[in-house]
Write a structure and sequence with these properties.
Blueprint lengths: L1 H8 L1 H18 L20 H24 L2 H7 L6 H4 L4 H15 L9 H13 L9 H7 L7 H12 L6 H12 L9 H13 L8 H11 L6 H5 L2
Helix pairs in contact: 1-3, 6-7, 10-11
Length: 239
């Protein structure tokens, strides 16, 4: 999050480097540096094409990304996803300082519902030390960990927090992913995109990491046959 904030504060230098790379790529495909036709309605004011793309694309994109990151990883929500740190595989990798930081975050949010809040600090460190001594981490669900390890006598507070973790709703469902993906793809700069192309790009964006290896050369050649404009073979294949 801080990286995007730093880029946004130094947008001029960052965009200068990015725009230089874009110009080099545009030369490979024979594309000229230009901006959309001005219609005096909702057009971003800019004297040059470079200034236009910075104001119309780069700055809004960084603002949207920063805003969504702040919303998703806010201080309020941190106490929810930090519950995942109680899972044995995670807490066994934390040192004393990290466990102390985890303690402060969890106490601030969940202390009022803990059965024994005064003993939570010592209990959390006992839970951490218990898993640090184990050679193998259990490959179990949260409910199984509660039943097998987090009993109500030795770890009553940990057990209560694991209950909350077990019933937390999933924050990124398939429908939600599709809406976020559509927001990134179908911007006002791409308002003329056809439905078929938008659907195909959405599938690739959402499931690209799970798709089998694609024959990129074959795809590029098929694209050149369908759209033989300025896309030439040397520009696509870097020859």
């Amino acid at each position: 999050m801080n990286s995007y904030t730093d880029i946004r504060s130094g947008i001029d230098k960052w965009f200068e480097r990015l725009y230089t790379k874009v110009l080099r790529l545009s030369e490979l495909v024979g594309s000229a540096e230009e901006r959309p036709r001005v219609n005096h309605r909702g057009t971003t004011p800019a004297e040059t094409a470079k200034e236009y793309w910075k104001r119309a694309v780069a700055i809004p994109f960084l603002d949207i990304v920063s805003s969504e990151l702040k919303s998703r990883f806010s201080h309020e929500k941190r106490a929810h996803y930090e519950l995942c740190a109680l899972v044995p595989e995670v807490i066994s990798k934390k040192d004393e300082n990290a466990v102390t930081s985890l303690l402060n975050v969890l106490k601030e949010k969940w202390e009022h519902i803990l059965p024994l809040p005064a003993a939570f600090e010592s209990e959390l460190f006992r839970w951490s030390n218990h898993w640090n001594r184990q050679e193998a981490m259990p490959d179990e669900s949260v409910t199984s960990i509660m039943a097998s390890h987090a009993d109500g006598i030795f770890f009553p507070n940990i057990r209560e927090l694991l209950k909350i973790l077990a019933v937390l709703p999933i924050g990124s469902t398939e429908a939600e992913r599709s809406f976020f993906c559509l927001r990134r793809l179908h911007t006002w700069l791409r308002s003329t995109m056809t439905t078929d192309r938008l659907s195909d790009l959405s599938v690739i964006a959402m499931h690209g990491n799970t798709m089998v290896a694609l024959e990129t050369d074959r795809i590029c050649r098929a694209f050149m046959e369908l759209h033989p404009r300025r896309m030439t073979e040397p520009s696509l294949f870097g020859q």
